[in-house]
Write a structure and sequence with these properties.
Layout: H1 2-23, H2 30-54
Length: 55
């Protein structure tokens, strides 16, 4: 259970950092950045779950 929580936080931080880096210059709107963050977080979380299920 702690691995899933840790993975969740890791995915959240990675996607947040990537979103901030990419949206800083191109998008000044918070809505677009938030949508990008949500999509990125969902995809990273899906990849994490896929990798965890293969172990």
């Amino acid at each position: 259970m702690t691995d899933k929580i840790l993975g969740l936080f890791i995915c959240a931080w990675i996607s947040l950092i990537i979103t901030l880096i990419f949206s800083y210059d191109t998008f000044k709107e918070y809505y677009t950045a938030f949508m990008n963050f949500t999509a990125l977080f969902a995809s990273l979380l899906g990849i994490w779950q896929f990798l965890r299920s293969n172990d």
